[in-house]
Amino acid sequence: MRVTLEQWRMLKAVVDHGGFAHAAAAVHKSQSSINHAIHKMEDQLGVKLLQVKGRKAYLTDAGSLLLRRAESLLDSAQHIDDLAQSLSAGEEPEISLAIDQIMPAVYITEVLELFANEYPNTRVQLYETVLSGAREALEEGAVDLAITGAGMPGYLSEPMTGVDFIAVASPRHELCNMGPLNLDDLRNFRQIVTRDSALQDKVDSGWLKAEQRWTVSNLSTAVAMVQRGVGFAWLPMTRVGPLILSDELKVLPLEKGALRSMTLQMYYGRGEQSGPGVMRLAELLKEFCVMQCPKHDIPMRAQILAEIEKPET
């Protein structure tokens, strides 16, 4: 390269600050050194970059075009400097986390947005898992954090939030028009089950051993299937609560077992050896569960439970 990044910085400073004197103060250089650098650039490039009118310097057309291209190089160089500073401070270049799909995506995206503002140079790998998928990722060392309901002895963990699973079907489904049901009654109808995302040691949590089983890989697909009336399912209230309140889904009239609960735990892949980025992300996730989840979930849960417990008229 015939022209250095430092020379482009000087040219940009002259343009941004309207002249050589103010640019010299901004970049901590002498006015003569900046003047010399700009003239040398023009000689090296063979084009006129600046024209001075009165006491103010203006870019020529050629100078404007070249500086626009150079600004992307300056931004990239600054990003490299910032990244190096982050790495020297111990910040991780990349963090991987596995989160069970029963946590709504809106919760995760809000937390990651806050994290990105504080750690703009850290890449994030998010694995959206089902059942024991997060446990498997943690055991294989593939993630730094995991949020799941599966028991994980031997890992540093903290409780996050409780999640209710509720038996639901479309209002058009035959089950919603039957009297009080027991679990045996459900075995004659199609159940929508979400597939365990683990590759080994899969579990079939909540499956009633019904022959008419459809298995999907994503909770969103399971919700859509139930809405279409093709089957029933136990689905997290975090996903189906609003659909129940809007009468798009109905809670099955089970005598027992319509509601199941589990507690999500957060597990640290490296325990107390986790880096500052992992610890901060974990802190943000905990804060959100303490401060935001109750605002979203508790009133909705209370309203739905009141409907379930309301006596038949």
Q: Can I get a quick summary?
A:
With 313 residues, the protein is an alpha/beta fold. It has helices at residues 5-17, 20-27, 31-45, 61-88, 105-118, 133-139, 183-186, 219-228, 237-245, 276-291, 293-309, and strands at 50-53, 56-59, 94-100, 123-129, 145-148, 157-169, 191-194, 213-216, 233-236, 250-251, 259-268.
State the main characteristics.
313 residues, alpha/beta, Arc Repressor Mutant, subunit A, D-Maltodextrin-Binding Protein, domain 2, 3 domains, 7-stranded mixed sheet, two-stranded antiparallel ribbon, 11 strands, 45% helix, 20% strand
What does the model show?
Helix 5 links the parallel strand 3 (94-100) and strand 4 (123-129). This protein is an alpha/beta fold and 313 residues long. It has three domains: 5-88, Winged helix-like DNA-binding domain superfamily/Winged helix DNA-binding domain (Arc Repressor Mutant, subunit A); 94-159 and 264-294, D-Maltodextrin-Binding Protein, domain 2, CATH 3.40.190.10; 164-261, D-Maltodextrin-Binding Protein, domain 2, CATH 3.40.190. The protein has helices at residues 5-17, 20-27, 31-45, 61-88, 105-118, 133-139, 183-186, 219-228, 237-245, 276-291, 293-309; strands at residues 50-53, 56-59, 94-100, 123-129, 145-148, 157-169, 191-194, 213-216, 233-236, 250-251, 259-268. The strands form three sheets. Strands 3, 4, 5, 6, 9, 10 and 11 form a seven-stranded mixed sheet that branches. The protein has a two-stranded antiparallel sheet with strand order 1-2. The protein contains eleven helices and eleven strands. Helices cover 45% and strands 20% of the residues. Helix 1 packs across helix 2 (20-27), helix 2 (20-27) packs across helix 3 (31-45) and helix 5 packs across helix 10. The protein is elongated and about 90 Å long.
